[in-house]
Amino acid sequence: LNGMLFPYQAFDIHIEPKQCKKPITPDLSTHERGDMKDLAETDQEEPMNHRHFGLARFVTPWANDTTQALIVADDANFTNMLSAKFLTAKLPEDSRAPQVHLFLDPDCSYSVSLRPSPVGLMGQILRYYTPMLPAYLTTTVILTISQQILRMGRADVTECKSVFFTILASVSPISVVLPSKLMAYVTAQPAVAKFLPPTDYVYIQESGLDFGMLPILLMFLSISVTFLLYGALYGLVIGCGYSWNKALVTFTARRAPTEAIAEYAVSSVLTRFPVILGVLGVALALSTCGAFAMVILTIAYFIRIFLLYEDYLDGGIRYLLGVLPEKPSLSQVHYDAGLFMLFFASTTFSLPTLLTWISRFGYISTSEGGASLLPMDPTLLPAIILSTCLPLLWLDESAALPVHHARLSRILQFFAILTLAYGQVSLYRVPYTVCASLASIAVHNAIAKFGPSVLHIQDEN
Q1: Residue 453: what are its φ and ψ, rounded to 5°?
Q2: Under a CB-based contact definition with an 8 Å cutoff, are residues 160 and 397 in contact?
Q3: C-alpha to C-alpha distances, 142 to 63, 175, 176, 236, 419, nearest whole angstrom
Q4: Do 369 and 423 contact (CB within 8 A), yes or no?
């Protein structure tokens, strides 16, 4: 099969027996025929030596792999079909082609056809390219936040646009795919390769998984999936936010005199005093596991978005009653939804470490007799960075409006390019680009809130 070159290709080879010669019955005596008649009556199935068999093989020479299918004539229990697909991708320098070997019964005539397999094609795409999708999803989320912040810096825009509007109107694969490809070309040059590691594009090409439109197709797919994930987030906030908030209040009420005090404490920590939650995150990361601290921060962020949405509903009712002069906006909810997705992405990447820590919990303790610690915790640094940035990320949106949005947008776009260039295969790098993105937004908010007045200038449109 010389035309079968790419790992996503899949075919079905149908070998259909058309006509088979009947077996020649030898001339037997009457007594022998009577014996055979009795044997046929006791065995209703056709004798095995009267059936026609064949064998089909799909051989992948570079992997020493063989897929086989049994061919049987006049038997509905056999499909007589062989699936031709790569279980190991073909390397670019390998000139060998996959082969189909047919061992058929000479007493039969066969019809052999090669047909594309849509189901097999989707299976091959899921097999080889689904592991790259988390990096593309993270890139899309960072790019969406970048475009939101860029729009917030315009003179005619007074609020943060919806993530759905931003994805449909502003997020494009061209803004990250072409720069990441250019970065891969530059880092492959000998003079630059001494200082910078090769991008993951090199590994994808060397493993035979690359084809021209792959990054653009995966970006379009990730944009669609990200759109659905944001829809699921808003649906969970509307449908389950109250339950989560009530559960947290009930848990806090065990250590508070009344439930009202517990509810006020939770609301104050999540909206007015996020420094307390940041200190708690650092303490959990140092005493238990960084992944566990990120899970707590992500849950707290989700409840914060619900509280913001609850304030929006409360403000809407007051506006209808004439108490408030201006109609409330979902701008802060849209702004925090993107940041929550980055927290959620970082937490998702840390789940293997969390499962490892849970499996070892109670067996390895610190010398002081505290909670269990892992010998090496790759999620510790990201957890500390997220906990440190959390109070700055939760500043009022109005405090972040007047300062350097265009510059921050370009910085976030650069981190999106880095994620796509270095995180498609090496997924362990993605949490660090997520932390760098959140740290950039936190520094931006700090400058807007606490910087000198000379810095409070409007960016150019």
Answers
A1: -65, -25
A2: yes
A3: 39, 12, 11, 21, 9
A4: no
Output the CA–CA distances (angstroms, integers) from residue 453 to 20, 414, 427, in the order listed. 93, 28, 41
SS3 101: strand
How many CA atoms within 13 Å lie on the side-chain side of 444?
30
Rounded CA gap, 295 and 304, in Å? 14
- DSSP string over 80-119: -EEEEE-SSPPPTT-----EEEEE--TTEEEEEEEEE-HH
**Contact partners, residue 112, CB within 8 Å, separation at least 6:** 13, 14, 15, 16, 102
Residue whose token pair is 């990096």: 135
Beta bridge partners of 116: 11
Copy the structure tokens of residue 197: 């590691």
- If one counts every other C-beta atom within 10 angstroms of the C-beta of residue 130, the result is 11
Residue 130 CA, distance from chain mean position? 8
The predicted model scores a pTM of 0.79
Contact 414, 421 (CB under 8 A): no
Q: Kindly give the pairing relationship between strand 99-103 and strand 108-116.
A: unpaired
Query: Residue for token digits 């075919």?
Result: 11
d(CA 418, CA 429): 9
Neighbours of 143 (CB within 10 A): 30
Please report, in tens digits, the pLDDT of each residue of the chain (461 residues total).
Answer: 888 888 888 899 898 888 887 655 555 454 445 554 554 444 444 444 567 888 889 998 888 888 888 888 877 777 888 888 888 888 777 888 888 999 988 888 888 888 888 888 888 888 888 888 999 999 999 999 999 888 887 766 667 888 898 998 889 888 899 999 898 888 888 888 888 888 888 888 887 787 778 888 889 999 999 999 999 998 888 887 667 566 655 655 555 555 555 555 556 666 667 888 888 899 989 888 889 999 999 988 988 888 888 888 878 888 888 777 888 888 888 888 999 999 999 999 999 988 888 887 644 444 444 445 677 888 999 999 999 999 888 876 544 445 678 888 999 999 999 999 999 888 999 999 999 999 999 988 888 777 654 444 444 44
Side-chain half-sphere CA neighbours of 425 within 13 A:
13
- Is residue 11 within 8 A of residue 85, CB to CB? The reply is yes
Find the length of the chain. Answer: 461
CA separation for the pair 200, 206 (Å, rounded): 10
CB 406 within 8 A of CB 150: yes
